[in-house]
Specification:
This protein is flat. The chain is an all-alpha fold. The longest helix is centred in the middle third of the chain and has 18 residues. About 35% of the residues lie in helices and about 0% in strands. The mean pLDDT is about 85.
């Protein structure tokens, strides 16, 4: 049986001053999904370096 891989991208505009809160929530959700989600292997959070919100 072959393994099927699906990549999904999400883009969020995070309110200025809420970046740390967003990053903590992302980590909590990822931890939950890895422990309870079927088939999830990993997720990455990237920050746009030229974004005006950082």
């Amino acid at each position: 049986m072959s393994e099927e891989i699906v990549n999904i991208g999400f883009f969020y505009d995070v309110k200025r001053g809420h970046e740390s809160e967003f990053e903590r929530q992302f980590s909590d959700v990822l931890r939950y999904l890895k422990e309870n989600g079927k088939g999830i292997k990993d997720a990455k959070l990237y920050r746009e370096v030229d974004s005006s919100s950082t």
